[in-house]
Specification:
Strands 1-2 form a two-stranded antiparallel ribbon. The longest helix is centred in the C-terminal third of the chain and has 21 residues. The radius of gyration is 14 Å and the shape is globular. Helix content is 53%, strand content 12%. The protein contains six helices and two strands; from the N terminus they run ααββαααα. It has 136 residues and is mainly alpha-helical. A hairpin with a 2-residue loop joins strand 1 and strand 2.
Length: 136
Amino acid sequence: MATEAFEEIVEDFEFIEDWEDRYRYVIEQGKDMTPLDDALKVPATKVEGCASQVWLHATIEDGVFSFDGDSDAMIVRGLIALLRKLYNGLSLADVVAVDARAEMARLGLNEHLSSQRSNGLRAMIERIRETAAAAL
């Protein structure tokens, strides 16, 4: 269960065979993201468990989930951009139901992220799920 925007990412990854090019693609996704307002980079939005600094700020309007985020690491900004494409625009129930690890595995990221980055990705996914579950 992925959004159309995430399916486009999956399709793009199918055409990019070299992992260096895939990393560049992920980083470009992060660069294209609007930076999170500094006023939102507060302890309440900071995600613990990441090697780099990460902030996620969720908004829920009419039961529809979306979030913005930022990081001081370019690859992590890219991962945030991918997660935004996976989750933004879904209902709260769908956010909780998404198997994000399986969706991200479709990109082959599990084998190519360091253990620290993988832990950070899990922490971001958990924060997103917890936020949506709490709002249900």
